[in-house]
Design a protein that fits this description.
Layout (H helix, E strand, L loop, with lengths): L2 H7 L1 H8 L15 H22 L5 H7 L10 H17 L5 H13 L4 H15 L6 H11 L1 H10 L5 H21 L1 H6 L7 H6 L14 H21 L1 H4 L3 H23 L13 H18 L1
Helix pairs in contact: 1-6, 3-5, 3-6, 3-7, 3-9, 5-6, 5-7, 7-8, 7-9, 8-10, 9-10, 10-13, 10-15, 13-15, 15-16
Length: 303
Amino acid sequence: MTAEREARTDPASRTTLDKAADENFPVAPFFLPRAWRGDLMAVYGYARLVDDIGDGDLADAPGEAVRLGLDPAQADDRLAMLDAFEADLGRVFDGTPRHPLLSALQPTVRRRSLAPEPFLGLIEANRQDQTVRRYETYEDLLAYCELSANPVGRLVLQLTGTATPERIRRSDAVCTALQIVEHLQDVAEDLGRDRIYLPAQDMKRFHVQEADLAAPSAGASVRALVAYEAERARGLLNEGAPLVGSVHGRLKLLLAGFVAGGSAALQAVTAAGYDVLPGPPKPTKLSLLREVGAVLRGTRREG
């Protein structure tokens, strides 16, 4: 059995991979070459698993602890789990990983000559989540996104052999925008984890207290704050959008899907009147398809 098939037949790993369907953007759409789809899902499985460890969202935490060489009693120690996960990541590059999702990642790493740095950045972001619960400034939040989001876009470019300094810069803008949009959608959920990704300086500017974020519905000040942050995310998406026009073929469609996913999610937030507290405003599949078309038309105009 190949490592990829083992990951897909392992119940815990399957649960992790199935979360791809809930993302704002298509992770590995059908129109891509099969090899690309497999590599993208391997990277997604890694990124999703490290986030689930950091968020305490593992379906079988004791079982995952054992997979990583820990005692089941350590399953609730997220920093210990992240340390063990990082050690197993090292085995992706110089040995035999223990975890099925990391075993599935190993062929991709070798085939595409991927470096460990982007993968380590995602682990470090989740370590930061255990100790940093608030962000004072927008710049602080951007530094977090540099670890938590931007490595994924860089990996996509590396997987497809299209990484250049300019494309990386555009990709970083798109990925940071997607992360900020996700934070806006998940304000209530993040608060339940005692995390706030709305910069404290901005909350003060809009006269928003932490207690306001715990309300069942957003008041005018919270809506104004969310609208302000949404506009920042939209600006980053616009800055990154030329990335789509810099590539061709099916990769262009994939990257258009990423940008469109962020745009459609922002439209959903706007349609909710910027009231994100009752639950995450989610884009429909139709709105996503419309946005893909708009992104592609925009790249043709730029060309």
